[in-house]
Structures are given as C-alpha cells and as structure tokens.
Predict the structure.
Amino acid sequence: MENTSKSGQSVWESSPKTTFALGLIAGIAVMSTIALVFILNFLMSGKSLGAVTQGTNPPAPTAPTVADPTAPPTADPVYADPRPVDESRDHIWGNADAAVTIVEYSDFECPFCGRHYATMKQIKETYPNDVRIVFRHFPLSFHEEAQKAAEASECAADQGKFWEMYDKIFESNLAGDMSVTKWKSIAAELGMDSTKFDKCLDSGEKASRVAEDLNEGSGAGVEGTPATFVNGQIISGALPFDSFKQIIDSELGN
C-alpha cells in the first residue's frame, strides 16, 4: 500500500525537491549494489588488479620439455664453439688436418652419453682419416659420480692414458658400476703410477680443469648431454650413427 500525507498527496508527489532527493538516493543504492557485485566477483576470480585493467590473465606456467634423443638431427649454425681446438690442452682423437671436427660435451655418468659413446666409436671406425673428435667435460650436478669420473680421466691424461680411461669409464657407465674406487682400480690395471693417480684424484686438483670445459660449453649453448658440435654446428642428443653420417657426409661433400 502506498503511504499518503495528511493532505492526501502521495509522498512522491509532495515536492519536486523531495522527489529528486529520493531518486538520487535510489540511484546511488543501485550503483553501490552493482559495484559490490563486481568487487565480490573480482575477489573470487583470483585475478590480479593488473590483469583486470589490462583485460588479460597472467600466463599459466608450462611444464619443462625434455628433448627426445631419438628425434631427427638438428644442426644450428648460429652456435659456434667458444674456443678453437687446442692441441696442447684438448683431448683429441684423429688427424689434425681432418676435414670434419667433432667437439663432444659429455657427462661420463649420463645414460644417453653411454649410448652416444657407441656412436662415437662407430664414427671413428667409419671415418678414420676424415674426422677428428675432441672430448670436453659437461658433468651434470644430479649425476653423483660424473664429476669424479671426469677428474679421473684428467688424472689419467697426466700419465698419457686419457682415451684408455675414457673407454673404461664409459664401459663402467654401461655396466652400472661407477665409483672412485673403480677408477683407482682401473688406473692400476692400465699400468699407471697408482700413488700419483690416487693423489691426483683424491686432492680434487682437476676440478677446475673440468669446470673450464663446463663453463665453455654453457657459453656455447650446451644445455644438456650429450651435445656435439660438427664443424661448429650444435647437435643435441644421443642421435643414432646414421643421423651423424648424413651430417658428416654433407660436410665432406659426399
């Protein structure tokens, strides 16, 4: 029922000023209700203020991707090895004047590097004169035995036995038998001076030498192992021999 004044007029008809004031109050109430609804929706949505004002939501985090080591070969010429091959420092297999130089950054404990080891052996057998291979260290932090294995190979290099130790370490990788004790045993088997080798390995004197390779590899774009540069073109992953053969033959003009 509508309320009336003593004069019989409706409250709404009593005065233009009254009507205006009541209308203004009603409008404010409606706008306040709309604003309150908007604020509640905003708070419940979980958006940031910046996202609302820009009209976009913050991007959702994406899961990291893992490279498929069996994927087709990829070679990117924009990457270049950060340091030329140094005959007095690097571990080199093959002829110095070979047409193709392969620089391999590897982790002795990495399972994919164990697979890659077999591929490198096949490359050596297939291209004994046309390819030279340079090995550099890239031990990954989550491989507990990788660092000491790398140091062991450097200690062996001091006694002219790098490639012999290299083979033995990767054989141990494939056999799942890696430890400092193992490297000392292998050094003795290879006819090294055990006292000198053990002191070298236990002291950690080769840690900085390994770190140099690791840092250089990172600067060249290496993000995982194995990573291989074929005449300066980076190839990531333990690709099969046939994939490397295609790239090497292309570099040789075959």
Remarks:
- The longest helix spans residues 16-45.
